[in-house]
């Protein structure tokens, strides 16, 4: 992970973390839980996925300011996920 950080350190680059293991499957499962009105299960799964991203961020960044900015960004995205309410 740090090799990636070194490659993009001096670039104005956006890194998409969707390639992190099981992200797509987890998002699909969260969506399925929401469609089934199983909000607690969706929130638990989202929490676990957020923890995985938080760990990735802590491993990737050594600069505390960048770490904080990345954690805030991830926090905003997961807040949106936690606020979804799908009923069909």
Describe this structure in words.
This protein has 88 residues and is mainly alpha-helical. It has a domain at 22-82. It has 4 helices and no strands. It has helices at residues 2-8, 23-35, 39-60, 64-82. The model has no long low-confidence stretch (mean pLDDT 82).
Low-confidence stretches are none
List how many beta strands DSSP finds. Answer: 0
- Calculate the terminal CA-CA distance, rounded to whole Å: 40 Å
Approximately how much helix is present in the residues?
Answer: 55-70%
Enumerate how many helices there are, as a single number. Answer: 4
Largest sheet: none
The H-and-E topology, N to C, reads as HHHH
Q: What coarse outline follows from CA principal-axis ratios?
A: elongated
């Amino acid at each position: 992970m740090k090799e990636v950080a070194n490659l993009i350190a001096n670039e104005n680059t956006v890194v998409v973390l969707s390639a992190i293991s099981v992200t797509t499957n987890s998002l699909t499962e969260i969506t399925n839980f929401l469609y089934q009105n199983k909000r607690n299960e969706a929130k638990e799964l989202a929490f676990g996925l957020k923890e995985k991203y938080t760990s990735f961020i802590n491993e990737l960044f050594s600069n505390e300011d960048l770490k904080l900015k990345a954690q805030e960004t991830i926090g905003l995205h997961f807040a949106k996920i936690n606020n979804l309410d799908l009923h069909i």
